[in-house]
Amino acid sequence: MKNDLNTENDSSLSILDQRPDFAFHNIKFCPFCGDSKKKESNSFKKLGHTFCWEECVNCGLIYQNPRLTKESLSLLYQSANFWRGVAVDEKERILGYDNYLADEEIRICNERAKVRYLSRLLPQHGRILDIACGTGTFLKVAREQGFATAGIELSEAMSTYGREVDHLDIVQGDFENVQPKHGSYDAVTLWNADNIFLEPKESWRRIHDLLAPDGVFVMNFLENKLLNKFFVGAFSAWRDCHSLYIPCRKSIRELSRISGFQSCSIRIQWGYFRLDRAINVLSRLGGRGAGLKAGEMHNLFFGMVNRVLHVPMPGFFLAVMRKS
Fold first, then answer.
1. Among 57-66, 172-181, 293-302, which stretch is predicted with the lowest mean pLDDT?
2. Which helix (H) or strand (E) element contains residue 312?
3. Less Cβ crowding at N or C end of the chain, within 10 Å?
4. Which residue has the higher pLDDT, 265 or 316?
5. Are 181 and 168 within 8 A, CB to CB?
6. Neighbouring residues of 58: CB distance < 8 A, sequence distance ≥ 6
7. DSSP conformational letter for 154
């Protein structure tokens, strides 16, 4: 396994075909609240397939239906198209990461802010399990602050990188199938992965059971409708074919209640970002900022394009659910 995930010849990451052999499964009930009443939300064509979403009338969750199977999701998450922004062809890109490791500087800033926040909620040297941990940047920062950390990551390339480069305790696999090494945690975290569980109710109940008494489940999520009010107003520009679920505050609170948590508090998330990276994502999507050159970006944003900014993030929320 190479330690440089930017290497184009890294054989641990596959390249998707122009029409991958994806399979789908029909859903009859809302994956969060179980209600059967729904309405059409959005659809688009990509990679030779049509992807459709419906909105639950009861809790407001937007969910993919028919939904990608676990095998199809694994194919996507193990690809260079997702982790390095490799285009399937000149027109189609997967909205994953433009270059995962290239954003490490900003990612560390954000992880430090998360750890500072968690430090107010957890006992000193508390045990943390991070689900969908990627290469483990959050785990590394939390470990530096004295926490006992463990992670689970579906991608073999990401989990191997975290183990070999930073010597982190990361298990490669699907949380819904992998048994964590330790039976009890003071916190379970889920960062930038609000839509990964095929069976969210079962997964959240399992998270609840893994927590010690008075433990917390902390996650962030993107409320897509609210984000679009601030920006382009196009659903397909902000979510992609791997987005199984697009939660909102109401649906998060409902699933928290169903999963047995005593309380659920939600607040606006603040985050660090660089304007040039954000504009680059917009350019890939054909949104505002598409086609802007470096000099134009510099003039448009008064020379701050390379600065790291700390601001409230429109549409992004932080949820803290506590076990009794």
1. 293-302
2. strand 308-322
3. C
4. 265
5. no
6. 30, 33, 35, 37, 254
7. S
With beta carbons less than 8 A apart as the criterion, state whether 62 and 246 touch. Answer: yes
Number of domains composing the chain: 1
Cβ-proximal residues to 56 (8 Å cutoff; 6+ apart), any chain:
30, 32, 33, 35, 37, 38, 62, 63, 251
CATH of the domain at 46: 3.40.50.150
Cite the beta strand spans of 179-307 per DSSP E.
185-190, 211-222, 245-246, 263-274
Task: Determine the Cα–Cα distance for residues 231 and 249; give it in Å rounded to an integer.
Answer: 19
Percent of the chain with pLDDT over 90: 52
The answer to whether residue 296 is domain-embedded is yes
pLDDT on residue 8: 43
The amino acid sitting at 119 is S
Cα–Cα dist 245/239, whole Å = 10
pLDDT at 235: 42
Helix (H) or strand (E) holding 153: strand 148-153
Most confident of 47-51, 60-64, 288-292: 60-64
Asked if the structure places residue 1 within a domain, the reply is no
Can you give the residue range of the structural domain that contains 119? 24-322
Task: Give residue-wise pLDDT tens across range 134-148.
Answer: 999 999 999 999 999
Answer whether residue 291 is part of any domain. yes
* Amino acid at position 69, single letter: T
